[in-house]
């Protein structure tokens, strides 16, 4: 039974200190959706018996069939914290009721744009790691994205049941596994984070602080050190320390937590804790985590799984676990599941960790504002975001579109950062290309309805104040994918999201019946709206292209297009990858192009970017929206540009944001500003369709050296200048040693340790990790490319009993390499070892 109503949720929305916006992020198949079931179950939305199997946040039929999350799904939960637990919260709080806006996100690299969209509207992240597999490639990618957005992480080590039942690890081995995962996560945080001196302070995870959970999402049980510390504090208090007040009890629990992790040992003879591994009489002492936490869990597992009925009954009585009559008749795993989820319910442990350690919007928006808002840091909108002011101007960011049951319409899903959004409110809808003071990409329209997203359901709600996540009806027709909604006339845009992958795999589609072409075009528009990353392009030839992050992403997009958006049968081509065109040196001559009427001349040269600049533009470190002097200083200091030239950048391209730059280095030219727009239009055209094979250009700087113009304006219009500029740009590229660049997948092969063999066990081999750079050209996923590296690593892999080597593709376009031959090279030449095989 749902234990809260929409009215209760609306009431707590005003208590912004008691809101937690968080997303669940992890590598694929590490158990995010299964774990989320425990939280949803705690809120009473699904029955506890079905938690872990329902995967409530996997709302699509293909998600349930494939057992992977494809779209991020939001759900709001109400959680009441006990008075004792409130003392652990260090930030401001307002009562004991908490609203948790949770977004379950995909783990597959092809859908990482959904993770980016989820992270933008949340302040905290629950990072889930499979304790058997450890920290994997995508764990690092999503964690890096979270840190870049200033999202505070907490860690959950999942699938602990596998470590006990399948691998049958000893307590000390399991502790070392946990310790290694904590260290690996902290290495990633320290590598990509801003350090303790940064605006977020110390965000390292530490079991002693309670920011690390352990458990099994499938079986519905989990704990942090806080749960066991409370048990032992209560036990010691019962022995004669008397009744403790809430504050005093919290202090005792925190002290106990410090003793339950690390190199702390417990002497059962005198019941005392020690920092030495040996007792005074030289006896080896057990580690506190193993003795006081893992040992009781191991005993429960051993008694139930080995059908020791008397011992099981004693343990259940000792642990004060109340079982239903139905559960008492169970044996083996079903009984284990019932006992563990009543003793250590995952919902309580995780929701406590989330409410105590993740920041409220009040805390988070203070340090996130400078990354979120493009405008000046002291205008009315920025101040409203920083203070999370419900009376300030409305500032809301739409991060994605969610299809509705009504075909062709979408809910605009986003987060209110300032002010209050309500049904019927007239707002300014600003697309990503909006520039303050101009009317392009700007609409003034009322909001038809505001709704609360509840997994596979939606609930109507009258209004939503700042700090909350909401869906809007009626604004989808004015936005393509993302945008800013505001009531402040001088507001700037919220910063556009940067994805960690690029849509590099393309397929051409056409309707099987030519009469269905209008339906296909309309379906492609809806598809482009429904996915944060997919691109739908119409080529000059009239061909319709869909570009996605990988084959799985394209497969899902094509299925959605055929079944939901266009609703027609379609034909598709084989997947191909996008290339980029670049130059390898400066033009060897100054290139001249005359206008068709022979009255105007343009003189240009092309040169390659210094290493790293294209990546900086992709990340947003250098952009067209930056303040002029700030950008010039950055380019001069990091890339040794001339400051005067850096201040005369005309534009970036293609699309005004791409990794190519047009710079004016002319001196004393008349009428130059009058043709600037025409030259820029030619530049955008040329960088969109390069000189070699009409692919986008990348990493090229074009310098306008001189211009000769006719004195009469009628002879230097756009019709004369645009094609002239394009021809001159092409000539500059062709005289600068042009090259093609291909997208590269970084593939890691991970070989896990096999389950423990029968005694006597041989020495356990270390996991082998090998990384390769593989061209994405084949479209066969990666296995075909790995035959060559596999030969190199083969003897090592075969030496591992039961060795298997799944591949993981990290990013769609992490790097580009120059292509010297266009024909398909044989498999032996494809694998490029990025790193030697190393033991880790």
Structural features, described:
It catalyses: GTP + H2O = GDP + phosphate + H(+). Residues 17-362 form the Tr-type G domain. It is a single chain. The chain is α+β, with helices and mostly antiparallel strands. It folds into 6 domains: 6-224 and 347-357, P-loop containing nucleotide triphosphate hydrolases (Rossmann fold, 3-Layer(aba) Sandwich), CATH 3.40.50; 228-343, Alpha-Beta Complex (Yeast translation eEF2 (G' domain)); 378-486, Beta Barrel (Elongation Factor Tu (Ef-tu), domain 3), CATH 2.40.30.10; 508-578, Alpha-Beta Plaits (2-Layer Sandwich), CATH 3.30.70.870; 585-736, Ribosomal Protein S5, domain 2 (2-Layer Sandwich); 742-839, no CATH class. Helix content is 34%, strand content 23%. The protein contains 26 helices and 36 strands. An 8-stranded antiparallel beta sheet has the order 14-13-19-10-11-18-15-16. Helix 9 (225-241) packs across helix 10. It is elongated, with a radius of gyration of 30 Å. The model is unreliable at 755-770 and 778-840 (pLDDT under 50).
């Amino acid at each position: 039974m749902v234990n809260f109503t929409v009215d209760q949720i609306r009431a707590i929305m005003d208590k912004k200190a008691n809101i937690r916006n968080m997303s669940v992020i992890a590598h694929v198949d590490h158990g995010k959706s299964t774990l989320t079931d425990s939280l949803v179950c705690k809120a009473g939305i699904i029955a506890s018996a079905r938690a872990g199997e329902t995967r409530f946040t996997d709302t699509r039929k293909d998600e349930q069939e494939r057992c992977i999350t494809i779209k991020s799904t939001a759900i709001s939960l109400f959680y009441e914290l006990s008075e004792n637990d409130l003392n652990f919260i260090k930030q401001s709080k307002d009562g004991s009721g908490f609203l948790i806006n949770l977004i379950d996100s995909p783990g597959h690299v092809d859908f990482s744009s959904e993770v980016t969209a989820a992270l933008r509207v949340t302040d905290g992240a629950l990072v889930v790691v499979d304790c058997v597999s450890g920290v994997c490639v995508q764990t690092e990618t999503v964690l890096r994205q979270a840190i870049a957005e200033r999202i505070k992480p907490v860690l959950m080590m999942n699938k602990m049941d596998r470590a006990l039942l399948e691998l049958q690890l000893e307590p000390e081995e399991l502790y070392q596994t946990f310790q290694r995962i904590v260290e690996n996560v902290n290495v990633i945080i320290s590598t990509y984070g801003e350090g303790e001196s940064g605006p977020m302070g110390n965000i390292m995870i530490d079991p002693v602080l309670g920011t690390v959970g352990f458990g099994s999402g499938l079986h519905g049980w989990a704990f942090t050190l806080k749960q066991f510390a409370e048990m032992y504090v209560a036990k010691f208090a019962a022995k004669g320390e008397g009744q403790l007040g809430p504050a005093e009890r919290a202090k005792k629990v925190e002290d106990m937590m410090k003793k339950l992790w690390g190199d702390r040992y417990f002497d059962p003879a005198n019941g005392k804790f020690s920092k030495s591994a040996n007792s005074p009489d030289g006896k080896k002492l057990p580690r506190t985590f193993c003795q006081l936490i893992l040992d009781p869990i191991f005993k429960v597992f051993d008694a139930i799984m080995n059908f020791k009925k008397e011992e099981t009954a004693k343990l259940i009585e000792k642990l004060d676990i109340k079982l239903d009559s139905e559960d008492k008749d169970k044996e083996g795993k079903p009984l284990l599941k019932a006992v563990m989820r009543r003793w250590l319910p995952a919902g309580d442990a995780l929701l406590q960790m989330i409410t105590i350690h993740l920041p409220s919007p009040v805390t988070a928006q203070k340090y996130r504002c400078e990354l979120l808002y493009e405008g000046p840091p002291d205008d009315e909108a920025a101040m409203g975001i920083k203070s999370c002011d419900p009376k300030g101007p409305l500032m809301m960011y739409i991060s994605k579109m969610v299809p509705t049951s009504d075909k062709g319409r979408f809910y605009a899903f986003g987060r209110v950062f300032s002010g209050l959004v309500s049904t019927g409110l007239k707002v300014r809808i600003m697309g990503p290309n909006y520039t303050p003071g101009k009317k392009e990409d700007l609409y003034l329209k009322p909001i038809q309805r505001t709704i609360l997203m509840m997994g596979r359901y939606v609930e109507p709600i009258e209004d939503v104040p700042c700090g909350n996540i909401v869906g809007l009806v009626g604004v989808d027709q004015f936005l393509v994918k993302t945008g800013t909604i505001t009531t402040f006339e001088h507001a700037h845009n919220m910063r556009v999201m940067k994805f960690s992958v690029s849509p590099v795999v393309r397929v051409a589609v056409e309707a099987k019946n030519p009469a269905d072409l209008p339906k296909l075009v309309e379906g492609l528009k809806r598809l482009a709206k429904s996915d944060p990353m997919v691109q739908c392009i119409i080529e000059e030839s009239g061909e319709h292209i869909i570009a996605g992050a990988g084959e799985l992403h394209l497969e899902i997009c094509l299925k959605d297009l055929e079944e939901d958006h266009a609703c027609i049968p379609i034909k598709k081509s084989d997947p191909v990858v996008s290339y980029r065109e670049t130059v390898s040196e400066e033009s060897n001559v100054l290139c001249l192009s005359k206008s068709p009427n022979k009255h105007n001349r343009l003189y240009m040269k092309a040169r390659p970017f210094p290493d790293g600049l294209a990546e900086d533009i992709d990340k947003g470190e250098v952009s067209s929206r930056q303040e002029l002097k700030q950008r010039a200083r950055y380019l001069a200091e990091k890339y040794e540009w001339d400051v005067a030239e850096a201040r005369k950048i005309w534009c970036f391209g293609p699309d005004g944001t791409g990794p190519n730059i047009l710079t004016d280095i002319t001196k004393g030219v008349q009428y130059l500003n009058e043709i600037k727009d025409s030259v820029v239009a030619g530049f955008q055209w040329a960088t969109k369709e390069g000189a070699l094979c009409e692919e986008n250009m990348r990493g090229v700087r074009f310098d306008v050296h001189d211009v000769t113009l006719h004195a009469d304006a009628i002879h230097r219009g756009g019709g004369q200048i645009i094609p002239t500029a394009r021809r001159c740009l092409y000539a500059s590229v062709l005289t600068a040693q042009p090259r093609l660049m291909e997208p590269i997948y970084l593939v890691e092969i991970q070989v896990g340790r096999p389950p423990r063999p029968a005694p006597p066990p041989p020495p356990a081999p270390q996991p082998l990790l090998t990384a390769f750079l593989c061209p994405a050209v084949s479209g066969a996923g990666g296995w075909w490319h790995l035959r060559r590296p596999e030969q190199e690593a083969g003897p090592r892999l075969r030496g591992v009993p039961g060795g298997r080597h799944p591949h993981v593709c990290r990013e769609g376009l992490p790097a580009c390499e120059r292509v010297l031959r266009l024909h398909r090279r044989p498999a032996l030449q494809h694998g490029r070892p990025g790193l030697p095989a190393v033991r880790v």
